[in-house]
Amino acid sequence: MAANAFTDSATNGNTASATFAWTYNTQPSVSFAAATSSASEASSSASVTLNLSHSYYQPVSVSYTLSGTAAGGGQDFTHAASSVTIPVGITSATITIAPIVDDSLAEGDETIILTLSSPVNASLGATTSHTYTITDNDGASSLSIADATTSDESAAIQTLTVSLSPASSSVVTVDYALTGGTATSGTDFAFVSGTLSFNAGDTSKTISVPVIQDSDVEGDETVIIGLSNPTGGAVISDASGTLTITDDDAAPTTDPNQAIVDDAILDTQTIIAKHVSGQGKALLHASQNLIQTSIDHLIVRTQLQAKRRNSGTTGTQTASRPPTADGQTSDSPPPAPAPSASFTEQAPLADRLADAVKLLQVDADDFGYSGALDFDFYEPLAGRNSALITKITASFSDQDNGPETSNLLASFALETESEDGESILGRFLHLTQTKADFRFTQSGTQDSKGVSGGIYTVYSPKVDHLLTAFVSFGVAQTDLELSVSSAAVKDSYNSLNAQAGVSLARTIQRPGLMMVWEMAAESLLSRQQSRYASVLVGGSTYRAQISARTVTDTSAIFTPKFIFDLQDSEDTEPSNLQLAPSVRCGSGTGGSSCGYGVSASLSQMMADNEGHTSFGLSADRYRNTDTISYFIDINRSLMGHKDIRFDTHLKQLFTGGATGGQPEYAINSVVRLPL
Length: 675
Description:
The chain has 675 residues and is mostly beta strands. It has three domains: 29-98 and 113-130, Immunoglobulin-like (Sandwich); 142-245, CalX-beta domain (Immunoglobulin-like, Sandwich); 260-327 and 335-565, no CATH class. The protein has helices at residues 258-311, 349-356, and strands at 4-7, 15-18, 29-32, 36-40, 46-52, 60-67, 83-86, 92-97, 110-120, 123-124, 129-135, 142-145, 148-149, 157-165, 172-180, 194-198, 204-210, 221-228, 235-238, 240-245, 357-365, 368-381, 386-399, 404-417, 423-439, 443-459, 465-484, 487-510, 513-528, 531-537, 540-546, 549-565, 575-588, 591-605, 612-622, 625-638, 641-655, 663-672. The strands form six sheets. It has an 18-stranded antiparallel beta sheet that branches. The protein has a five-stranded mixed beta sheet with strand order 4-11-9-6-7, with no helix packed on it. A hairpin with a 2-residue loop joins strand 28 and strand 29. The longest helix is centred in the middle third of the chain and has 54 residues, at 258-311. The chain is elongated and about 165 Å long. It starts with a strand and ends with a strand.
């Protein structure tokens, strides 16, 4: 209130004055000067200011509480929540939080929230809460993995250390897995991927890698482990760690004889490959020869049956079916066999055994000589439509460019003809023995014994149709002793083999012309066991491993033959011209190929069937090889004896191809003597 003067209204001239003064205050409001503030955790303390709206004649006090993400108790800061008093006449106060802890944890920014309550002599103002932010100065946690090296392979467990810097205030995880390296899992080490977990404050973890001891000389090898997928705010600064496994196996000293051993084994495998291929083909031909014998006797029986029908006689049962009125074969069943049923009339056994011994054949040329002695016996079994076939061939060869060989092949077959005479079923057995004496670039011996068995069938519903098929399986045992490349090799092995073949022929007769359509396919397989051969070099013996090997060869051929009869009514010596184009495809261990060829021959028979003269020319391309050959074949009886024959054969063989080739010449002269 302001001072005022009072004046007496009387006229006596007296005056008087009085002054009155007083103060009146309402209660102030208390609040924070600002809602937020912040500073680095490197700051030693934090100050937060309180303001009154105006001074007051009495002290003002206010309580406050602490909250937020920062932890008290000396972890992030030290301060106990309490109250603050503003004295009379003062309009502000400061709350000091100290100390602020400058730690090394990667924890991110943290907050301290102060909240006012319970004012005394004042009311709460507009800003009753203040957030103080402690800014983290440590950055994000970083993960890294260190490399490691073993002292040797005997270190059973090797560890790689994964570091977290700085430590985190929360849980951090990271995955680890195998990402590369030259070592082989399961052989050089055992490793399982996984996850590492760092608790708050942890700075390192380890990954264990079990190392496997071996005796292989392999040099130092590496295991590379990678980190991925970090959590908890961490980052990866080094994601790849390399464990080096130090090889503790000394390299063997180089044996100067090893190259000799390797060459000797290579030469041995080459000889074995040739032997296995030749053995398989010999068994193929042996089975085909049995089938041909059945076919030949089927033809004889058919011709004999026809003669008997023409003469009106009856006799033993044959393979053909009875004719109809027009001379054609009917589909009606054949007549029942006579009681003495056998295939044909039989000569005395002694005569048949003598006939079974075939001619002794000897071939000679400028490379050496070869020969063979055959025993071929066909014996029908009385009382049933069956026959026993025995074929024994003993052959020999001595060539300048190859080993001296001797071979014995014995084939036995039991064939049974069907009741309708249209098919034959045969069961056969082959016994083989082959011996070779090497005398040139290699020296040594080879002895092989084998047995093979199978079945064949011949089906001929008509005279001009013919189907054959066979399959066989066998086993062979071979012993080889070979001296080559300053080394002596001893090898003994067993092999399994299989052969199969099928053929189809169709004959068409026309006046002056016979056409034969032939299709055939054959296949062979041989499997040699894995084994160790003994190789002697100087005074040292080595065990050299020879791996198991499978040899296969499959081929198919189509050959139409055209045979022209050149004999006219006045000729006494028959002659013919034969043309035979062919297409052939094959596949096997040596590769796959298709080829084609053509052959032509002119044959002239001599008077009274005393001999013949043939001229021939053929060209063939198959499996990247071109072959051209021609021959002159002269067959004559000697000294007037028809059973003593002289045969000479001249041939030039030219084998070409991509690399060219050299012609080969051969003159074979054979004298065949009946025994």
